[in-house]
Amino acid sequence: MTTLSTIASQIDGQPMFKILDEALRLEREGKEILHFELGEPDFDTPRNIVDSAIKSLRDGETHYTSSMGLYDFRLAAQQATSFSRHFTPDIEQILVTPGANSIIYLAIKCLVNPEEEVIIPNPGFPTYYTAIKACGAVAVPVELKEENGFRLQPKDLQKCITPKTKLIILNTPSNPTGSVMFPHEIEEVAHIAKKHNIFLLSDEIYSRLIFDENKPFFSPSFLDHCKDRTIILNGFSKGFAMTGWRLGVAIGPAQVIEKMGLLLSTIISCVPPFIQRAGIDAIKGDQQEIQSMKNEYAMRKKVLVDGLNSLPGVSCIEPDGAIYAFPNITKTGMSSDEFANFALHKAGVALLAGTSFGSAGEGFVRMCYVNNTHNINKAIANIKQALGEYYEKRS
Questions:
Q1: Could you state, in order of their start, the residue ranges of all structural domains in the chain?
Q2: Which residues of 222-248 are buried (b: 16+ CB within 10 A; e: fewer)?
Q3: pLDDT in tens, 56-86
Q4: Using an 8 Å Cβ cutoff, are 68 and 93 in contact?
Q5: pTM summary value
Q6: Which tens digit of pLDDT belongs to each residue from 84-97?
Q7: Phi and psi for 118 in degrees, rounded to 5?
Q8: 48-284: which CATH topology?
């Protein structure tokens, strides 16, 4: 039998889906499982967005369109950027993609040569690691520390830069920690990137989900308007409850966006036009339901964090944004993997080991507050009971 390529043998996918598969197996065996492993909003897509897609389908918008995206969609993204980020990108700076994840791969493939380096947060979104491997590049993790609220520290970033560094990936609000960097920290990161002539991919998928009023949204694009080295990664999955629609937007230097668009046309062709019509309505339509979802997330966050801090051996700092809590479980005496396995099999709670997001995640687990408060309270009660039995056996 012929062998797979070296790169294919290194690709290991996203760990959350492996946990989901195990949780589903247990459910098939009759065990009740409470799900906190996937960053999947439990809200349905707002009706006005769905109706726009249906109308587009009925109007016959089922054909190929530009690989760069519908002009109308890019115009809506341009206007939204002007409102939210206080600059107006050129249409040529905007690319529509099938979900935000694809932007990670497209950007790395177009900017980074094999063996060159990409600096990523540790803990960080697992797709960063996999996309870097798939491009034959080298991931250089910069540790995020609980003592700093899991905010990337510019001085730590500076230490990771070498002559081979080609790209920095910034993610704020953060997956998996929920941390939000201060504006001055992001400015320092942008200045470091400029000083060393490094591209900066700013993952802003959670930019609509910031709960701390003392940490207003800030983007490195505020400084260079995506004309020099900043590329914005954004999408509709989290803020608009559109995970299954697969719709993302990249904004960056025109020459970079052009090449990303050519690569997209080669492997994907284009984003379906009816999906893009739904995206236009998400951007320009009624935002009341979107705000209601955010308010609900804020309430769930408090219930989950308070509950986690009530567990013996567990502590959790307050996340500032996104949809994740990242509790410290070191005092339980279990590793991250052990605790995740314990929670699933002993408490019926599916969550993720912190090490799923990098080595600096050891001692932590991730829980998504995309489940209702009843189930959050039930999950906390289940874990508390299981921990009580665990400690009793150890004593």
A1: 6-44+288-390, 48-284
A2: bbbbbebbbbbbbbbbbbbbbbebbbb
A3: 999 999 999 999 999 999 999 999 999 999 9
A4: no
A5: 0.95
A6: 999 999 999 999 99
A7: -125, 125
A8: Aspartate Aminotransferase; domain 2 (3.40.640)
